[in-house]
């Protein structure tokens, strides 16, 4: 099945409308972490995951949310940052080492791990398709937990034909760099696979369906033979880079959905001071 990639704001608008229909309280601005969790539940489509992987409320609070902070994981400076920014709630990708007692009283905590990875990093990621100008998106590969709906592990899309060098420039501009490349046999790239996994089977499926560039987080040696036999170009962007891209995108989605909530992005990975101040 193919479909055009929606813009980031359109994606946020779609999710807001879905939430308003299913949960009328979200027709007004989110006022508690629980209401933000309802929005993110639909954004990440967490119903596709077993309960232990769905995420949501990590630490409950009924404090009204005027400022929300986003971070990939807790660091020793996170509590100080929370105090300094006068945050009412936090969202974390990896919350497990969080020292709750170090946070200001009343701060709620939300967390999503796998749903965030599969929605806003290197998977079937609509905002990334928009950023890379991929069209006519198709699902690529699937995984499925017992008794839950299948989930695509990646996407494929069409793009104007360009050589690998031009794609490397585009990816560097978008992600700030990449970790490794495997240059294949195809010089002109017009069909791209973006996948949060790298297996022999998925590489071969992507090649059979016309992809000549495979974007992923890390190179996996078991798939090396498939890469060589298909002549696929592969770019490993780096797991951390893809998470940072997803975190900035999540901030944009939340700002579009909840303009009355100030969104702050934890600056531990940001090198641009202007972005730190505006995030």
Secondary-structure element order, N to C: HHHEEHEEHHEEHEEHEHEHEH
Rounded mean pLDDT score = 88
Q: Roughly how many Å is the radius of gyration?
A: 19 Å
Summed up, the helix count is: 11
Strand order of the largest sheet: 5-6-8-9-10-7
The secondary structure category is: alpha/beta
Query: What share of residues is helical?
Result: 25-40%
- Rounded to the nearest angstrom, the distance between the terminal CA atoms is 36 Å
- Which of globular, elongated, flat, extended, rod-shaped describes the shape? elongated
Low-confidence stretches: 1-8, 18-28, 270-279
Percentage of β-strand residues: 15-25%
How many E-type strands? Answer: 11
Main beta sheet strand tally, sense and closure: 6 strands, mixed
Description:
The protein is built from 11 helices and 11 strands. The protein has helices at 8-22, 33-43, 51-54, 78-84, 114-120, 126-131, 164-175, 200-208, 224-230, 239-257, 273-278; strands spanning 56-59, 67-71, 89-92, 108-111, 135-143, 151-163, 180-182, 188-195, 213-216, 233-236, 262-265. The strands form 2 sheets. It has a 6-stranded mixed sheet with strand order 5-6-8-9-10-7. Strands 1-4-3-2-11 form a 5-stranded mixed sheet, covered by helices on one side. The longest helix has 19 residues, at 239-257.
